[in-house]
């Protein structure tokens, strides 16, 4: 089974780290697993494995997982923003054009009595 096929068959973050022989702190992985795996996925998508040997692919994938882990050790999920929901709520990004939210003054509200 190829390295890529093995990666596709994994189910947990720990399995990725064990297969690729990358050291990790369980307490860090417990909190950041989705962010780390998402970043590794971004690295894998941009990689070109065509013509590489299985050893070269293994080393490249190992490096990508290690880099993804380090990205979140040195930074944090809010700064890295790997998920769409975090990208959309980036305060440094200009707001998307669209209808302005309606404002209802509390003084215009009536009670039911």
TrEMBL record:
The keyword Magnesium does not apply. Keywords: Nitrogen fixation. Transmembrane segments: none annotated. Residues 90-113 are annotated as: Disordered. Residues 104-113 have a biased composition (Polar residues). InterPro entries: NifW. It comes from the Bacteria. GO terms for biological process: nitrogen fixation. Homotrimer; associates with NifD. Belongs to the NifW family. May protect the nitrogenase Fe-Mo protein from oxidative damage. This is Nitrogenase-stabilizing/protective protein NifW.
